[in-house]
Design brief:
The protein is of the alpha+beta class. The chain has one domain (8-82). Helix content is 29%, strand content 29%. The chain is built from two helices and five strands, in the order E-E-E-E-E-H-H. A hairpin with a 2-residue loop joins strand 1 (8-11) and strand 2 (14-18). The longest helix is centred in the last third of the chain and has 17 residues, at 54-70.
């Protein structure tokens, strides 16, 4: 699996991407941590990425961002309107 989006390198262990919803995410290598990579955003959301290598981590981060967007919370007013 290869990353399909454009990652901006901030340094040798840190990369940034602006996702399609406009949120900026940072992927940072954490070699001393339990997982090799950590994906974070300005809202404080984090996701551990448990793969080795930059390209694999970027691809897995993109996969996680794609899947997580499918489970975005639905506004209560939208639920009432659908009922």
């Amino acid at each position: 699996m290869k990353p399909t989006k454009r990652w901006t390198p901030l340094d040798q262990q840190t990369y940034r991407i602006t996702w399609r919803d406009g949120n900026v995410w940072v992927l940072h290598a954490t070699p001393a941590g339990k997982y090799p990579w950590l994906l974070t955003n300005d809202d404080g959301a984090t996701q551990e990425i448990g793969v080795s290598g930059t390209v694999a981590a970027q691809a897995m981060a993109e996969f996680w961002l794609d899947v997580s967007s499918l489970y975005a919370p639905v506004a209560p007013t939208a639920l009432r309107a659908a009922a």
